Amino acid sequence: MGTLRLLLGDQLTRAISSLSDLDAETDVVLMVEVAEEATYVRHHKQKIAFLFSAMRHFAQALRVEGITVDYVRLDDPENAGSFGAELARAVERHHPERVVVTEPGEWRVLEMMRDWREELGLPVEIREDNRFLATKAEFGAWAGEKKHLRMEYFYREMRRKTGFLMEGREPVGGQWNFDAQNRKALPKTITVPPRRRFEPDAITREVLDLVARRFGNHFGDLEPFGWGVTRAQALEALRFFVEEALPTFGDYQDAMKTGEPFLFHAVLSPYLNAGLLTAEEVCVAAEREWREGRAPLNAVEGFIRQIIGWREYVRGLYWLKMPAYADTNALEATRPLPDFYWTGETEMNCLAQCVGDTRRHAYAHHIQRLMVLGNFALLAGLRPAEVEEWYLVVYADAYEWVELPNVHGMILYADGGVLASKPYAASGAYIDRMSDYCAACTYSPKVKEGERACPFNYLYWNFLIENEARLVGNPRIAMPYRTLAKMSDDRKAAIREDADRFLGSLTSSYGT
């Protein structure tokens, strides 16, 4: 035969580089469900089901084209359980002249691939992932020798490169970023559109049964399962977002509401990160809504910034800095991950709500992830590796290339400011302003100390006290440090006492 083309589970794009010159007469596409990838961390049950079902549907679509697909299911008794072992078995079956694969999204898998040529005894071509709008080389050239890599400046370069929301060399509306207009609290009377969900078909139902049997001890609820698993369903999810949610997305993208985990967010990241949608097409769809007068500029700019700004930026940073990046711990945080991240059992209602949403849907929007779950992890000094693994486990859109920089750099400031210009720390007042969580909480964001005080209040100041030597020179948090300098010793002692009491009450059985 000709070429054996290995397609990974998050590479479900027909135009991906590994399939670009496919010859249907001689080539075979290999797709494998392997236990190693499903269990290297104990992924949320819905994430495993989403990927396996999407893979099976994609294989079916390739076969309809007349392409030969060698598909190995997880429950195949001959399944060897890893990419390398399954690739070796496929080489024995098909005797290809070479193997072609698109580079993976995780450093550990790339390290495996680099050994395959020697292990298999035939050429293995690892191609660049052409689904991203910036190549690794382009990001590296932009980064240069910069000590701090600010997304905003990279984003402007991406706007110029792609032409999205541009008039010549200038941004439409006269400014690059409309984030200041995207921080409104959610009105009580606003109507949230019911989210587009998809009824599982026979293929998905078979996968759900498999996941229930094999991964019943993994985190999260398996059902109800409503993710799209085909290209057509992903396109329908995109249509729903731009028509029903995008017009209001900008104003309320930072808001949080009990019982409304999706609000006006796109909820497209699982489809983007698995390949069912491309970055370019979702930006084209969003920009069209603005140009045709159906969505305001602040909403469309905010969405496009997430795609060609943050998404491209964190991917570039990941490959530029790995593998050493993951080992940094600039704030020397060592506290173990509390059990409530898994159970949701905490009297802090905001955390209980966000963990509950995550458990039910394998999803939480970016403010829940950053300013509730992540804010607590930062203020409590949780060990970066444990927090990062949790984020990788629980979300359907989580892959290390996107999860690690966001958590390590943006949430935990563990890289010492390579990504973020300051730690994203906040007291209970922020959560109270942007959500309705506090009204039903045991604690009060208006109480500053004592057992009824919102723990975010004293943990915020305790964080500043504990990290004063590391952070006091940061100009972006100069104001809170000036306030801290004016506090009496008694007030500081009360803060430390409240923080020690609360943190000492947390239980952790991480890894059990």
Automatic annotation (TrEMBL):
It comes from the Bacteria. InterPro entries: Crypto/Photolyase_FAD-like_sf (IPR036134), PhrB-like (IPR007357), Rossmann-like_a/b/a_fold (IPR014729), UV-DNA_repair_photolyase (IPR052551). Coiled coil: none annotated. PANTHER family: SLR1343 PROTEIN (PTHR38657:SF1). This is (6-4) photolyase. It comes from Salinarimonas ramus. The lineage of its organism: Bacteria, Pseudomonadati, Pseudomonadota, Alphaproteobacteria, Hyphomicrobiales.
